[in-house]
Amino acid sequence: MDIDFSAKMYSDPTMRPHLKKLYDSQYAAFYERIDAMPETPTTVSMTMPDGQSVELHELSAEQYRAAVPSFDKWLELQSRIMSDTGDIPGSLQSVERARQHVQNLEQNDPGSPSGVRTVFATGSEILGYINMDGSVATHAGGSVLQDIAKKADAMGLSGEAKIAYLQDEGKKALSARYGNLQASNYNTSNMLNKTEFANRWYPHHDTYESYQSALASARAHLEETEQLYQQQMERRNAMQAFLLQSIEDSQSSPTIQAEDENPLMALSQSTT
To answer: Is residue 39 over pLDDT 80?
Structure first.
């Protein structure tokens, strides 16, 4: 038997008694802990770093019970989560983004092309540069390149036309400010790789170390998101199996507990 495992399930009247059983089972251990609590909440004394003594009071059993969402509130919450994520848990989308990030880093190691088409400099000081996608990066003294880039965008320029405009206008503007301006242009045949570019203009930046650190961090994040996704899928499969079993049990036994009867709640109330 298949279940329409979507947000609609939580408002389906035929699924309500089975969802109620699931709801009760999920909070069973919580109610057992509440029933085992002493009548008087536990108080713990702690000494803070400044030497002051404070008392921490555990919540009472009634406060814990009040923290449990009602069945209808739980249905509403589950439906909202399912509506937001659809059939695929949101964590899967996170996994795909994390995997793509790792792949991008692996494909763009320190030996890969820098993507820099033009560098503007004065002596050993870099003023800014133009990337092959038409974006610009600037340092102190080269901020005029940002203004020129905005004009290029306003003119609707893109691709090689935009790069040519940035090269020409950038050289004019910066030459007026710096008599010894150096404009170095590159293409696919002579483009510096990332390590060469960093060594030339950012000698104090360790490109390889930064890359290895970024790659290790990205791979660790991917592993974490994959584990989270696996956990969510296991919980989802367990929920689906529980509901299927509940439906099968109800078909073999016509008596199903009324949805408003919570034996765990009743037991909890009878023992207080």
So the answer is: no
Element (H, E) at 98: helix 90-107
Give the burial class of 189: count Cβ atoms within 10 A of its Cβ; 0-12 exposed, 13-18 middle, 19 or more buried. exposed
**What is the three-class DSSP state of 260?**
coil
Looking at residue 14, what DSSP letter applies? T
Cα distance between residue 26 and residue 15, in whole Å:
16
Please provide residue 43's backbone torsions phi and psi, each rounded to the nearest 5 degrees.
-115, 130
DSSP 44: E
Measured over the CA atoms of residue 217, residue 219, residue 220 and residue 226, the dihedral's sign is: positive
pTM score, whole prediction: 0.62
Which tokens is 82 given? Answer: 């399912």
**250 exposure class (CB count in 10 Å sphere: 0-12, 13-18, 19+):** middle
Question: pLDDT tens for residues 236-247?
Answer: 889 889 999 999
Backbone angles phi, psi at 126, to 5 degrees: -85, 135
| pLDDT for the residue numbered 252 | 83
The partner residues of 41 in beta bridges, in order of sequence, read none
- Concatenate the DSSP letters of all residues of 157-210 into one string: --HHHHHHHHHHHHHHHHHHH-TTEEEEE--TTT--BHHHHHHHH-TTS-HHHH
Radius of gyration of the chain (CA): 32
Distance CA 113, CA 119 (A): 14
Tell me how far apart the alpha carbons of residues 106 and 109 are, in angstroms, rounded to a whole number: 6
Mean pLDDT of 173-196: 95
| Region of residue 88 (left: phi > 0; alpha: psi -120 to 50; beta: else) | beta
